[in-house]
Amino acid sequence: MNRQKVALILLILLVISGILYMWPSLPFNQKELRFPDIISSPDANTNIVSGQKFSLSLNETKLSSQDSIIISLNNKRLHKISNQYSYELETTGMPLGYHVIDVEVYRGSKNKKVELPFIIVSDIQPVPAIHTIIKIINRDTNSYTQGFEIADGILYESGGQIGRSLIRKVNPKTGVVIKSVETDKNLFAEGLTVLNDKVYQLTWQNGVCLIYDKDLNLIKKTGFKSTNGEGWGLCNDGKSLILSDGSNKLSYLNPVTLEVEKIISVFAGSKEVNLLNELEYVDGFIYANIYTSDQIAKIDAATGKVMSVAIISGLDKANPKGDVLNGIAWNPATKNFLITGKSWGKIYEVSF
């Protein structure tokens, strides 16, 4: 081996030694650190029960040489830590559903951020709700019922399907139609509610809300928003419109602008409750038909937690020419509910 080769080998070894010596103080490559290099636990998309602490553990071995670590929740900075590799988040009072923790690691002028999505689920397991049928009322089957609500002693009803959509006023004691108005033939009508002397009628995929006076004279057509652009059920809490869109989300809308004010996610224990359909608000709770099922869920309107579930079995068989259960209206005069289904020939007065 000649002297040039020996000198080259020595130079390479010297460079390698220098790199190894200086490595801890070198700025790190942003692409170098991956999720497991930063977060030890929990795994992504872990369920956290509402009220329990969210415990975050960081990878001390990989992060011990870093300058600082920033913890954020849903893009809002929570905490800055150094020489600390764990963090606890209190979930009491946090909304149910999807959240994201960001962990951002800094060293010198370099930084690396990873996202840790997690899901807060309900701490309540729903109990069965026992219902009693008090009265059966015959009714016209011409409505593919989508919205059902009593206001000032009148039952307002929205019926769907293209070319058959309508809105009507019905006598809740007899089932007799007082007035019926057809909607635009191109619209598929959905949920309905009455607030501030106005009747709001959603459409399914048209993105249109029809607003009437209480005698069903059309005041205006306007747009609305939901989490997926669809309109299913509609009710109100006296201040906001509350809209379902077939997901497990309920959107609270401003009744003047129809802009979204807030969104809550609905959970029965650890399970998302999807296909929320026709809605009714009563004393802080939202009663929701679960589409294609014989179930009505009682939901805490403040949290989205399902408190109980009523199984209304057998009524679809008594209405063989109709479709699924859909329609629930609270009658403040009797303190009972009226329930029906799509194109059913009967309305049932029930208590839960």
Low-confidence blocks of residues: 23-28
Widest sheet: strand order?
2-8-7-4-5
Class by helix and strand content? mainly beta
Terminal-residue CA separation: 95 Å
Percent of residues in beta strands: over 45%
Radius of gyration (Å): 29 Å
Named CATH architecture of the largest domain: 7 Propeller
Word description of this protein:
By secondary structure, this protein is mostly beta strands. The protein contains 3 helices and 31 strands. β7 and β8 form a beta hairpin. It is elongated, with a radius of gyration of 29 Å. The chain starts with a helix and ends with a strand.
Present the secondary structure layout.
Blueprint: H1 3-22, H2 35-38, E1 39-41, E2 46-49, E3 53-58, H3 60-63, E4 68-73, E5 76-81, E6 86-90, E7 97-107, E8 110-121, E9 127-129, E10 132-138, E11 145-151, E12 154-159, E13 166-170, E14 177-182, E15 189-195, E16 198-203, E17 208-213, E18 218-223, E19 234-236, E20 241-244, E21 249-253, E22 260-265, E23 267-268, E24 271-272, E25 276-282, E26 285-290, E27 295-300, E28 306-311, E29 325-331, E30 336-341, E31 346-351
Parallel strand pairs: 2-8, 9-28
Antiparallel strand pairs: 1-3, 3-6, 4-5, 4-7, 7-8, 10-31, 11-12, 12-13, 13-14, 15-16, 16-17, 17-18, 19-20, 20-21, 21-22, 23-24, 25-26, 26-27, 27-28, 29-30, 30-31
Which key terms come to mind for this protein?
Immunoglobulin-like, 31 strands, mainly beta, 352 residues, 5-stranded mixed beta sheet, 2 domains, Methylamine Dehydrogenase, Chain H, 3 helices
